[in-house]
Amino acid sequence: MELLKQRILKDGTLENGNILKVDSFLNHQIDVELLNEVGKEFKRRFSAEKIDKILTIETSGIAIAAITAQYFNVPVVFARKTDSKNMDRDVYESSVYSYTKDRNYNIRVSKQYLNEGENILLIDDFLARGKAMEGLIDILDQARCNLAGIGIVIEKGFQEGGKLLREKGVKVESLAIIEKPVDGNIIFK
Amino acid sequence: MELLKQRILKDGTLENGNILKVDSFLNHQIDVELLNEVGKEFKRRFSAEKIDKILTIETSGIAIAAITAQYFNVPVVFARKTDSKNMDRDVYESSVYSYTKDRNYNIRVSKQYLNEGENILLIDDFLARGKAMEGLIDILDQARCNLAGIGIVIEKGFQEGGKLLREKGVKVESLAIIEKPVDGNIIFK
Q1: Among B150, B129, B133, B138, which residue's Cα sits nearest to residue B54?
Q2: Is there a domain that residue B142 lies in?
Q3: Is residue A185 part of a domain?
Q4: Which of A114, A150, A159, B43 could form a disulfide with A128 if both were Cys (CB 3.0 to 4.6 A apart)?
Q5: Helix (H) or strand (E) segment spanning residue A4
Q6: How far is CA A53 from the centre of its chain?
Q7: What is the pLDDT of residue B85?
Q8: What's the rounded Cα separation, in Å, for the pair B90 and A132?
Q9: pLDDT tens per residue, range A96-125
Q10: How many structural domains compose chain A?
């Protein structure tokens, strides 16, 4: 998606020379106009799939999923990372390893919002090693939902998540795939 | 906002007889169509104000703020509750007391996304005692931004947050204001 790639080149920054930060338009400040283009592109790429619901994960996936859902006319559910007193006790749960935080965390979705046989599109901001996606897929399996596909804004093409998912036959659509940054340069696949 | 009130009556549940849960359309599963009506209504109520940016707080405010921002044509910034390795170190920070969790937590916004003199609309799902809003206002003060107003989806009219903010002259617009639930009934002000 050219508009997105141009924006990454313009406003993305590389921290410590290799960690791509897109806080200025995707992860902390959100450019809603850009997200609308992202949503349209996801709709175009998944136009052949039957989608009943979009599932994402807090926090950075939520705005992307909500804007995207408008083009599919479906509700969004987000998996919670934090335990909340107010949350249902009757949940699907999966453990996800975070490389950033070097620990496991649990993700949870109330059982009542995933129904057997529903076709679910997973949406997230980044795909790297794919651990969060594995956790969401585990939850879909528990709920006997069908994985319709995965829509990712930025895939780190130098990490194995996308490859592993595609080898399993999952339709993964990443709007920008980046190579491992070298000498402070962002290069797309 | 009648559509919202009808939805609260239809799908809201009272946990332990008094805690309103709207997980099925606002807080965990998100009805994006309803949020579009919420966004339009916020735009109608704040049509006289100059708004440069919308500020909300993770997690539940994000989808509401993102959908609403489309009607104001402005970016969204969300305050982070959790510390992230990837987050800027140069942040505005405020401490917020959570009655639900009975402890303080810090909220943070990168300094680069709030500029002096900007007119900020605060958006959130719930207003009860107003502690989260106080924290966001503290951050706006630090950034020398102007508080243009506060848009709330559901205000607990039996707690003091709304009253305190309005007494300070803040324009608070709540789309549904509920009375203290009695005998499992939800009553609007």
Answers
A1: B150
A2: yes
A3: no
A4: A159
A5: helix A2-11
A6: 14
A7: 63
A8: 28
A9: 998 888 899 999 999 999 999 999 999 999
A10: 1
Taking CB atoms and an 8 Å limit, are A110 and B28 in contact across chains? yes
Entry pTM: 0.97
Domain CATH for A147: 3.40.50.2020
**A35: domain range?**
2-178
Pick from B15, B28, B120 the residue to mutate for testing the A interface (most A CBs within 10 Å).
Answer: B28
CA quadruple B174, B178, B180, B184: dihedral, nearest 10: -150
Residues B122/B149, Cβ–Cβ less than 8 Å: yes
pLDDT 10s digits, A31-62 = 999 999 999 999 999 999 999 999 999 999 99
Residues 104-123 of B with CB under 8 A from A: 109-110, 112-113
ipTM for the whole complex: 0.96
pLDDT tens, residue by residue, B118-143: 999 999 999 999 999 999 999 999 99
Please choose, from the candidates B13, B23, B86, B38, the residue with its C-alpha nearest in 3D space to the C-alpha of residue A78.
B23
A66 part of a folded domain? yes
How many Cβ contacts (< 8 angstroms) between chains A and B? 119
Q: Is residue B43 part of a domain?
A: yes
What would the two tokens of residue A166 be? Answer: 């595609």
What lies within 8 Å, CB to CB, of A51 at 6+ separation is A72, A74, A119, A120, A121, A148
Sequence length of chain A is: 189
- Whether chain B has a CB inside 8 Å of the CB on A38: the answer is no
